[in-house]
């Protein structure tokens, strides 16, 4: 049985929220000149496809194919794409859960592809993740206290029992939960509350960088907004950078400073979230925007609507030329033959990368 | 308004366990007209799916029990007819599309054969005739190369195509009512738009009434003729989409709409989240507003009395809301209307460019 929310949650005060709003406004006013904490260049992740007893390799799935991006300190890069576009694979590569095929991942001066397991273990303090399913990602047999301190213990920085208790209480109040719940088990919480526990666990190690993989997809609309606000609030307080992976462009755009639109393992468009709103360039981005539902019939009917045909092709056998050419309403002969380059078309020093012949040609 | 084909009156479905009674659907009433699209919107645990299952008498007993109310289909009470009669109606006159096509389809039977089953049971077709019809149905839902595809198994279909196959199955017997329970939740955004267009086209062509159950407000704004917002097993607001989305009265409706980040507007600062969690339905006392613990306008009245669904005084006909404090939400409503106006202005500016 879920607990009544007022026992468990401590609302973040109106004053705090107001301060947060001001902070965000200030942050947006500052041009993106912050130091890059993560630089990913030409990242490729191909999974082999094998057949038969001898595991003969018969092909490969190009889950992530030549992806380049940077994330600035204390900022958020949103990655949005449909299922099968490779967005979670990028997250896994950055966290070194899987070893990438090619490319460089530079985190705070360390090349993660060269660093080795022991070096990586040290870095895992700073580089953590929050995952999608709050029901699967928390061990049902561990109390909230154990869940949050596990990482500290692994790294040998847990300290005494009293210190641990203090830390857990601090973390829980940071994510808006009542510190008294630390002895409870995950099943006693609702989805949104569990996701808060996941966030508290990630924050316990004072990370500088968190990969948030679809963290709000499993939640109800009203709870989703709470968690999105919480993440923005924490970023302000703690100056952590996020990679925010999601399939819902409206949520991703809301929380991100930069948004990368991924399709079939390639970035189609990467730009600031304001630019994405005012000048989306790639046909796929436009289609995504127009497909996103808007809770207002008058506005919804007034909008231009681009309805894509068909499904995302298999990444095992991507189309020749532009990956999007099979579904693109503007696809020309060139799009089917030649792969478009991923170039910066931004004016006035703005970052706006697009991979489309139609846009680049102009 | 065209003929009423389904009338749900005071439907109550409760679930029981050793120590509690859970009112999943609590006194729900509405009408569905021929060819109409009714949207039922609610969060998880609001009772929206149980309500659909209740209409088809598919609620498992125990623990669930339809304890009261009538469901009049063409004037006949579905709660009173025999199981055999119900089976005749289920799948032929009223059919249903489920949320997760990958689990609703049988993985070891080819798609075509699964569609044939409905046709043979309800329309008494022969094997060959049914298979031909199955191909025609798949073509109708725009599955390319349908003649080959009927022989394939569900795992060979993508999510969007599986859902289309489900639609084909559901419309096989030209039902009067099609109930779609979260038809697009498991699908990608672009595919979601395709499937919804498909459903809407079907509805227009065959004059089938469509009941869409969803948690996503935006999805139905375009298609619905009437919208019901459910919370804690009760309708808290209903009306045309224009009424409900553009002039929402209930604090919960307002909260839901404002909790969704808008892609049609510049980035806002902080989302208007509804604090707290959806209520545990087994502990809500019957004599209160289910939303009271999360509502900022809550007073003692809300904790001790249950608000009735009433016509909104200043609203248009049929816009009804169950709240004691409708007048107090005006400020929030004005903010929302301002946002919508801004969005429309932006759109017009874009068009004129």
Number of helices of chain A: 14
Mean pLDDT across all residues of chain A, rounded? Answer: 85
Largest sheet of chain B: 8 strands, mixed
Q: In percent, how helical is the residue content of chain A?
A: 25-40%
Largest interface here, residues on each chain?
Answer: A-B, 62 and 58 residues
The structure class of chain A reads: alpha/beta
Total E-strand runs of chain B: 12
- Derived structural class of chain B: alpha/beta
Strand order of the largest sheet of chain B: 6-7-8-3-9-10-12-11
What CATH first level of the largest domain in chain A would be assigned? Answer: Alpha Beta
CATH topology of the domain at 236-352 in chain B: Rossmann fold
Q: Which value, in Å, is the CA radius of gyration of chain B?
A: 21 Å
CATH superfamily of the largest domain in chain A: P-loop containing nucleotide triphosphate hydrolases
Indicate the multimeric state. Answer: heterodimer
Provide the helix percentage of chain B.
Answer: 25-40%
Question: What would your notes on this structure say?
Answer:
The complex is a heterodimer of chains A (362) and B (353). In chain A, 36% of the residues lie in helices and 22% in strands. By secondary structure, chain A is an alpha/beta fold. Chain A has an eight-stranded mixed beta sheet with strand order 6-7-8-3-9-10-12-11, sandwiched between helices. A four-stranded antiparallel beta sheet of chain A has the order 2-1-4-5. Chain A is globular. With 353 residues, chain B is an alpha/beta fold. Chain B has a domain at 236-352: Rossmann fold (3-Layer(aba) Sandwich), CATH 3.40.50. Helices cover 36% and strands 21% of the residues of chain B. In chain B, the strands form two sheets. Chain B has an eight-stranded mixed beta sheet with strand order 6-7-8-3-9-10-12-11, with helices on both faces. Chain B has a four-stranded antiparallel beta sheet with strand order 2-1-4-5. The relative contact order of chain B is 0.13. Classes of the chains: A alpha/beta (362), B alpha/beta (353). The interface between A and B is large, with 62 and 58 residues.
């Amino acid at each position: 049985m879920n607990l009544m929310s007022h026992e468990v949650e401590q609302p973040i005060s109106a004053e705090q929220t107001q301060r947060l709003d001001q902070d965000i406004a200030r942050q947006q006013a500052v041009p993106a000149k912050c130091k890059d904490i993560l630089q990913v260049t030409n990242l490729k992740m191909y999974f082999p496809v094998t057949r038969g007893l001898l595991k003969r390799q018969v092909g490969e799935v190009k889950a992530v194919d030549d992806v380049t991006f940077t994330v600035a300190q204390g900022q958020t890069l949103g990655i949005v794409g449909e299922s099968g576009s490779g967005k979670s694979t990028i997250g896994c590569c950055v966290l070194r859960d899987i070893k990438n095929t090619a490319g460089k991942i530079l985190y705070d001066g360390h090349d993660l592809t060269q660093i080795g397991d022991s070096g990586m273990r040290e870095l895992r303090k700073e580089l953590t993740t929050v995952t999608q399913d709050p029901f699967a990602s928390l061990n049902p047999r561990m109390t909230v206290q154990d869940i949050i301190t596990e990482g500290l213990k692994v790294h040998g920085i847990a300290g005494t029992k009293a210190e641990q208790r203090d830390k857990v209480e601090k973390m829980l109040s940071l994510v808006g939960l009542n510190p008294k719940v630390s002895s409870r088990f995950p099943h006693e919480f609702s989805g949104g509350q569990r996701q808060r526990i996941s966030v508290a666990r990630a924050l316990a190690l004072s990370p500088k960088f968190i990969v948030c993989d679809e963290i709000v997809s499993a939640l109800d609309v009203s709870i989703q907004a709470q968690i999105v606000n919480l993440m923005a609030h924490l970023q302000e307080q703690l100056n952590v950078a996020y990679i925010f992976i999601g399939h819902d462009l409206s949520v991703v755009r809301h929380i991100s400073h930069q948004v990368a639109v991924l399709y079939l393992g390639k970035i189609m468009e990467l730009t600031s979230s304001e630019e994405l709103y005012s000048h989306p360039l790639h046909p796929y981005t436009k289609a995504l925007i127009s497909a996103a539902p808007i809770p207002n019939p008058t506005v919804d009917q007034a909008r231009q609507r681009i309805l894509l045909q068909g499904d995302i092709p298999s990444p095992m056998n991507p189309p020749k030329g532009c990956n999007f050419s099979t579904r693109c309403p503007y696809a020309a002969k060139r799009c089917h033959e030649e792969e478009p380059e991923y170039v910066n078309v931004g004016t006035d020093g703005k970052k706006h990368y697009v991979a489309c012949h139609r846009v680049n040609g102009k | 308004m065209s003929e009423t084909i389904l009338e749900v009156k005071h439907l109550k479905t409760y679930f029981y366990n050793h120590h509690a009674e859970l009112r999943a659907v609590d006194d729900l009433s509405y009408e569905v007209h021929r060819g109409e699209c009714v949207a039922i919107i609610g969060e998880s645990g609001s009772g929206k799916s149980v309500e659909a299952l209740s209409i088809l008498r598919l609620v498992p007993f125990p623990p669930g029990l339809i304890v009261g109310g009538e469901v009049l289909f063409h004037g006949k009470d579905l709660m009173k007819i025999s199981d055999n009669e119900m089976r005749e109606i289920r799948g032929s006159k009223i059919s249903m599309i489920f949320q997760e096509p990958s689990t609703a389809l049988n993985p070891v039977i080819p798609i075509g054969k699964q569609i044939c089953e409905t046709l043979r049971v309800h329309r008494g077709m022969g094997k060959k005739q049914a298979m031909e019809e199955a191909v025609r149905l798949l073509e109708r839902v725009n599955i390319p190369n349908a003649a080959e595809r009927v022989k394939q198994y569900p795992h060979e279909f993508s999510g969007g195509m599986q859902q289309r196959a489900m639609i084909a199955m559901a419309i096989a017997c030209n039902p009067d009512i099609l109930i779609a329970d979260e038809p697009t939740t498991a699908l990608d955004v672009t595919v979601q738009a395709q499937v919804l267009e498909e459903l809407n086209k079907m509805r227009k062509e065959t004059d089938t009434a469509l009941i869409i159950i969803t948690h996503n407000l935006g999805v139905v704004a375009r298609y619905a003729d009437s919208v019901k917002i459910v919370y804690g097993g009760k309708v808290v607001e209903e009306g045309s989409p224009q009424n409900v989305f553009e002039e929402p009265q209930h604090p919960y409706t307002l909260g839901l709409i404002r909790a969704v980040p808008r892609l049609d507007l510049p980035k806002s600062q902080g989302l208007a989240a509804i604090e707290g969690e959806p209520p545990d339905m087994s502990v809500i006392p019957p004599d209160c507003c289910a939303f009271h613990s999360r509502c900022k306008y809550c007073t003692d009245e809300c904790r001790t009395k249950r608000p009735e669904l009433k016509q909104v005084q200043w609203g248009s006909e049929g816009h009804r809301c169950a709240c004691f404090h409708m007048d107090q939400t005006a400020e929030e409503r004005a903010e929302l209307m301002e946002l919508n106006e801004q969005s429309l202005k932006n759109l017009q500016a874009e068009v004129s460019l």
